[in-house]
Design a protein that fits this description.
Strand content: 5-15%
Number of helices: 9
Helix content: 55-70%
Mean pLDDT: 89
Number of strands: 5
Structural class: alpha/beta
CATH superfamily: P-loop containing nucleotide triphosphate hydrolases
CATH architecture: 3-Layer(aba) Sandwich
Number of domains: 1
Low-confidence stretches: none
CATH topology: Rossmann fold
Largest sheet: 5 strands, parallel
Radius of gyration: 16 Å
Length: 186
């Protein structure tokens, strides 16, 4: 199974992605984690990505597509994967389609988790207090939400037109949300 997880910052994509990938025994590819690893190891991509992330901006498409093209060709992705945080823009989605075409693959589903904006801000502020993440301050959160609305939300229509979109309510107990997602995929 090849999946894309979408939704605004703080909706719980990472938490649900871990649970869904365990259930379906597929690889969880979090671009956030991939990029943080690049930053921690001080690679060229990491240095470039950090400047954008700390300002609440998306990492440029060409950098992400380069990284994801290489990652999707690794052996552990052959049985399926869940893309968490990628694609985030229409050019990234189109680039992903080209990568998948080259690999003779296609996405099975694009899952969009939905939630109320005020609830998302509350969640992210709490996460920032617990984890010390620089990008979970209220000002950066609001900027990220606006970037999401401007650049990522159009993917909902993109995947709806491809008839692979599934929308799932991202509010509730973690286990309830996981059950909703799994039911929508089976």
């Amino acid at each position: 199974m090849r999946l894309v997880f979408m939704g605004p910052p703080g909706v719980g994509k990472g938490t649900q992605a871990e649970r869904v990938t365990t259930h379906f025994k597929i690889v969880h590819l979090s671009t956030g984690e991939i990029l943080r690893e690049e930053i921690n190891t001080n690679t060229r991509l990491g240095r470039e990505a950090k400047a954008f992330m700390n300002d609440g901006q998306l990492v440029p498409d060409d950098l992400l597509l380069e990284k994801m093209n290489n990652r999707l060709r690794q052996d552990d992705c052959m049985e399926g994967y869940l893309l968490d945080g990628f694609p985030r823009t229409l050019p990234q989605a189109q680039g992903l389609d080209s990568i998948l075409e080259d690999l003779n693959q296609s996405l099975d589903r694009a899952v969009n988790l939905t939630a109320d904006n005020d609830e998302l801000i509350r969640r992210l502020v709490l996460r920032g207090q617990k984890s010390g993440r620089d990008d979970d301050s209220p000002d950066v959160i609001r900027k990220r939400q606006q970037v999401y609305r401007d650049q990522t939300a159009p993917l909902i229509d993109y995947y709806r037109r491809q008839q692979i979109l599934t929308e799932v309510n991202g509010i509730g107990k973690i286990s309830e949300i996981t059950d909703r997602i799994i039911r929508s995929l089976t």
